[in-house]
Amino acid sequence: MGFEFIGTCPLLQVFDMPASIAFYCGVLGFEIVNHSPSGPRPGLDYGWVLLERSGVELMLNTAYEQAERPPTADPARVAAHGDTMLYFGCEDLDAAYAHLRSNGIAAREPKVAPYGMRQLHLSDPDGYGLCFQWPASQQNYDQWVERYGLKPMLVE
Fold first, then answer.
1. Where is the VOC domain positioned along the sequence (predicted)?
2. b/e map of 20-56 (b: 16 or more CB within 10 Å)?
């Protein structure tokens, strides 16, 4: 290839930035590492934020300028969010599930998908899908050893 690039950082359009920050930072443990200036309400009323946790980056941007924001989210716009799914590697899915449930998040109990990944599904405040997953088959685990540098081991 004629050029190089590193990493990727999805950008999600959100309706209520403080609610999204409460979810991603307060529940999932991300930290704000950069942001636009605050909006008219002091605190977490940013138009854009860059979040980071364990090398995973995610950007959030308000779907509307403050003066143009309707009182409620546009259902047609939010309906399309269900087509978006972010996948995160997470070894201890049982602990993740317990943590999410203790924080009032309607996560589905982890289960093994037909292709050998144990997965925990939930939605963020804007309806974007999140999936925390870990290899449940030896073949998938061995691929993750190669891809992510995990310690080789036998999967039970």
1. 2-135
2. bbebbbebbebeeeebeeebeeeebbbbebbbeeeee
